[in-house]
Automatic annotation (TrEMBL):
Signal peptide as annotated in the record: 1-24
Annotated InterPro entries: DUF1194, vWFA_dom_sf
Protein name stated in the entry: DUF1194 domain-containing protein
Organism classification: Bacteria, Pseudomonadati, Pseudomonadota, Alphaproteobacteria, Hyphomicrobiales
Keywords: Signal
Pfam families named in the record: DUF1194
Taxonomy, superkingdom: Bacteria
UniProt xrefs under SUPFAM superfamilies: vWA-like
UniProt KW Oxidoreductase keyword: no
Length: 278
């Protein structure tokens, strides 16, 4: 992990340890009124399960997400805010979108490990297309309205290995803008298989049920496409993975930054977002 992340996360661990006694009472109160207490962060983990994601790649994603939830630094980040809790949900998407794990409160190490176990048990659904705009509409219509508590921050983490091949770019951008208008931050984890500077495909797209259609733009490179059409909101940033074998490293670092309520991390968010907009 880069030194800047280690310094930030070390501070979070100390914060979480110092707040443990005070937040124990709050967590006890939560049990008396489930779902009533607000949280620091609501995190939507949005996972690509299109045709390029075979069973092996799917397993690497699920194991990486589970390991991140079990990591002491990530757990410290979860518990570092004034409410010492967060909400977690996971969405799987291709041309179909489904909620793999509904909104679940994480307010302790045991909670985090329980969600990690559910992630590992998740089955890969059938899917062929990379439909980012479809996924964002699903989140807008069915995920945000069902968030059961107030959250100080709502963050969506989008991971995938390709550009939208269901809709042209303006549809993805419109849905991204609609979500960020609610105050959500959308961060990207592009999974680079091969040279990230090489164009993806031949510049065509095929929406479900239609023949290949010529795109009205040049073939896309994954990271710039994520930067231009996917990420958005306050402090939004990209943290790429160098292939599926690097996914667990990337998702761990990304979760720790996204979940943290520490002011130093928020400042780092802003710097990452400013750099990404250039």
């Amino acid at each position: 992990m880069p030194p800047i992340f280690r310094l930030l996360l070390a501070g979070m661990i100390l914060i979480a340890a110092g707040q443990g006694v005070g937040h124990a009472a709050a967590r006890s109160a939560d049990k008396d009124a489930p779902g009533a207490a607000p949280v620091d962060t609501a995190l939507i983990v949005s996972v690509d399960v299109s045709g390029s994601v075979d069973q092996g790649r799917f397993a690497l994603q699920m194991d990486g997400i589970a390991k991140a939830l079990e990591d002491p630094e990530v757990i410290a980040a979860m518990l570092s805010g004034p409410r010492a809790s967060m909400m977690f949900t996971m969405v799987e998407w291709s041309e179909r979108v489904a909620t793999a794990i509904p909104w679940t409160r994480i307010a302790s190490r045991d909670d985090a490990f329980a969600v990690a176990a559910r992630v590992r048990r998740t089955q890969r659904p059938a899917g062929e297309f990379t439909c980012v705009a479809h996924m964002m509409r699903y989140v807008s219509d069915l995920i945000l309205p069902t968030l059961p508590v107030k959250a100080e921050r709502v963050v969506m983490d989008v991971s995938g290995d390709g550009v939208d091949n269901c809709d042209e770019d303006p549809a993805t951008a419109r849905m991204r803008d609609a979500l960020t208008a609610t105050g959500m931050t959308i961060n990207g984890l592009p999974i680079n298989e091969g040279d990230p500077n090489e164009p993806l495909g031949g510049g065509a797209f095929r929406a479900p049920g239609r023949p290949f259609q010529p795109r009205t733009f040049a073939p896309k490179i994954l990271e710039p496409w994520y930067r231009k059409y996917v990420i958005g909101g306050a402090g939004a940033f990209l943290l790429p993975a160098k292939g599926y074998g690097d996914f667990d490293r990337a998702i761990k670092e990304k979760f720790a930054l996204e979940i943290s309520a520490a002011p130093a991390v928020h400042a780092h968010f802003a710097q990452l977002g400013a750099a990404g907009s250039r």
